[in-house]
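Reviewer comment 2.1 asked that we show a complete input and output for one of the modelled complexes. We chose the iron/sulfur cluster case, as it is the one discussed in the main text.
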Amino acid sequence: MIFRRHPDGHRHDVIIVGGGMAGSLVAKELGDHGWRVLLLEAGTGTLATWQGHLDAMDTFYGAVAKVPNAPYRPNAAAPSPDVLHLEGLPQGGYRATGYFVQNGPLPYGSDYLRASGGAGMHWLGLTPRMLPEDFATRTRYGYGRDWPIGYDTLRPYYEAAERAIGVAGDADEQNAADIPVGADYVFPMEKIPRSYVDRCFAVRLDGRTVEDPVAGGTDFTLKVVTTPHGRNSTPNPSYDGGRGYRPAESPGLPNYGERCVGNASCTPICPVHAKYNPLKTQARFGRTVTLVTRAVVSRVLSGTGGRILGVQYQAYDDPAAPVAETRTAEADLVVLAAHAIENARLLLASGLANSSDQVGRNLMDHPVLLAWALMRQQVGPFRGPGSTSALECFRFGAARGERAPFRAVISNWGWSWATGSPGSDVAQLLREGPAPGGKGLFGRELRAALGDRIGRQIALQFEIEQSADPSNRVTVDPGIRDRLGDPRPVLTYDLSDHIKESMVSASALARKIFGMLGATDHTSHKPGPFQPGYFRYRQHEFSFHGAGHGAGTHVMGSDPSSSVVDEWQRCWDHPNLYAVGCGSMPSIGTSNPSITMAALALRSAEAIHRDLSAMHRPVRLSAAGVAGREQPVAAEAGP
Ligand SMILES: Cc1cc2nc3c(=O)[nH]c(=O)nc-3n(C[C@H](O)[C@H](O)[C@H](O)COP(=O)(O)OP(=O)(O)OC[C@H]3O[C@@H](n4cnc5c(N)ncnc54)[C@H](O)[C@@H]3O)c2cc1C
Ligand code: SF4
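Response of the prediction step:
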């Protein structure tokens, strides 16, 4: 890889906007083919250095609220949204500050990170595949949008993505749970072992049935299934026909990137880089890939006949006090990989790719409903990744016609998301002891009460499918701009009754499951500052959270009049413009979306290679690098 600040004077075969998971994977593939790739990244690249990693760890340790962006320093040139920028009001409703402008009935409750590596720095790392039936919800269940391709088309790309990311999983368990990874398939690494919490659930739940009160009394048979992860475990010796698998090392971090050791801070930062992040892909870039950080793309430039010429971007030095210089870069083909919301924002700001009027529409996420309880005995939470297993049964079948499907994710981190535990427990016990209004505890009594309470905490995270709705959308307003003068994303977001019915169902199922576990339900959804997603529905009170799974804003389809990109993520309106990432997904099922997004990105890289090959030949590669081109210069350092 070549790091440099000013690529002027060099024409590139392809410009990629955004060095997150999608952009890094596409850049790596195209670089391996010998194409001259310019990767423009809005944020800094400091996290790829040892000092930058230590700095992020220190910032995280010092943060009061350990939210996803807690370790990462604010950047005034490339601002990121933050979950702390949403506040619930005392009687319900919300107030939004920060980067997003929000004007929907309900808040879009997710964030992302604008730094090299993107949201892939603070993701949780769960990589379940979508189900075959998720690709055709309109045809099969009468809601949402169908994909132009199906699971079988994507299957080889899922396998390629699992290799690129380094996925740990158990194929037999996936197949048995009707998630068809293939009878002969093995994952690159062995599954991340079940937590003790998972085992307590499995002992009491496996094989028992629960009735869904919403979906016509459908019975579901419970089974705890381990989730595939993008984090290092033991390489699988039988992977790749017995050739095995070698996990990627961490860039700039000697001896790091080894096995998951259970530090339990994966979101927002894995101290030992056991969890995949896109910097690992960047570290493997070939020499024809040039990464330029601190380069905020503000417009995509077009010429005659819809052809894209390149991009305009703003180069800055100091993220705290941005003074930017406007530059342009040209290439034969441009790939937008800046995140679902940023891709839409860029297309809208550039006035491109929108003959269907679908750019920015169909914004989706996985609304998350939490339920929490106390077990009678110790279950050892706050160890290992945030979740290692889930109840998969609620994702399938005819019930989807009546309420949106969901995964019931088993949390390993107690009530941390629900109530802010363990900090909230310390505060409450200091204030009033175990009983509300009581006398506070100190010293030995406090320690004993904390150990007793925290060690018995369990929680379920119901991650609910949101289907495409054109009125949930990203727009831009020329009057609302960021420090560099780029329009900020304006969001309109709401939840459908299909989702709200799902919350009714999930709440009832949670109560039944807690009953089977012998646990005492403590779930309470009330308005308040930490509950911006509070609302009432059919006499019920709910409060939901975002999952960070923004999708759908440049939706893929087979008809140019109703979709933005084709099945290769190529914009219908511009033959040499691609928009990759979750924004292309017409539906997101109930799976965390990134492995599907990665599979799509690798498939697009093939199409881009074909498109570029039809124009001309790639540069010749040699062991010494690319003849006649720059040699690597030092990676970025500094703030
Ligand atoms: C808290 C959290 C937990 C998550 N956990 C999971 C999980 O367990 N499993 C899962 O599948 N998914 C998870 N996700 C979602 C996952 O992180 C995203 O799907 C994925 O990172 C998106 O990748 P991307 O490359 O499309 O976008 P991003 O990761 O957002 O990368 C986009 C890149 O583009 C850059 N950029 C933005 N604007 C510009 C511009 N104008 N010019 C130049 N560059 C620009 C950004 O700086 C960034 O580096 C989680 C998300 C969050 C927030
Ligand atoms: S549990 Fe710890 S070591 Fe494992 S991925 Fe999460 S933060 Fe990294």
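Confidence is low (pLDDT under 50) at residues 622-639. We note this here for comparison with the apo prediction described in Section 3.2.
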